[in-house]
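Is S-adenosyl-L-homocysteine placement plausible here? Inputs below.
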Amino acid sequence: MSKKNRIRIYVDADLYTGGIVVCSEAQAHYLLNVMRLQTGNDVYVFNGRDGEFKSVIAQCGKKQCALRVETLFKTFENSPDVWLLFAPLKKDQTDFVIAKAVELGVSEIIPVITEYTSTTKMRTDRLHTLAIEAAEQSRRQDVPLLREAAELNKILNDWPAERTLFYLDESGNSGSAAEIMPQFSAPAALLVGPEGGFSEKELEFLKNLPYTYGISLGKRILRAETAVVAGLSCWQALCGDWRYK
Ligand code: SAH
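Reply from A.M.:
I modeled the complex. Tokens:
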């Protein structure tokens, strides 16, 4: 199998040469029935701390599969320290936001309830599975932490002051990403409002906190999910790991 389309799975187990990893039933189904692998085939495993290892299928049954861990393939590397705070959207858009945020390298995702947030229903366990799939596919070495949704006020009251919070401000009253973002190195966070936007009160509150900076993404109003992708791309290019090859 070429390095390009290597099959990767995220596991909880500690990883070291010679170790055995017992796959979950869903992983066994994926490896054996979907990817049609057999005993002796390669599978790459990562757990968010030990790096990525090449392993082989040592044993498999109808609904079970055990891997024998062989060699270290890539040493562990943390994702850039940027969090995404976004107001939950409709199911498909929320799924899109989670997958794209993982691909774009966020280290933590926090759903926030704002004044105009239209939906607060979120299945965090399902979204966690989605985040794992996106991490596997994008060759990340870790899966970002997905927190339970919380009120914006509560999150801001407990905010770690050293983390710069860039809020995407569609009002036209903030500076550009190119001008503001490079002034602050990580840790950082990006806050994107709901389809209804931020309320006047929220914008006033955000503006007056010591660690927040409003960012404009131009004159056009973007859908919230577009703003997530655009904002994170700006941050990666100006402050994150897109600055290097
Ligand atoms: N209903 C609002 C638009 C909300 S768009 C209106 O009509 O004005 C959803 C979110 O995406 C916004 O709260 C903001 O965080 C972000 N966003 C959209 N367009 C943006 C822009 N041009 N600049 C900065 N942020 C933007």
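Short version: Helices lie at 25-34, 91-103, 124-138, 152-157, 177-180, 200-207, 224-238.
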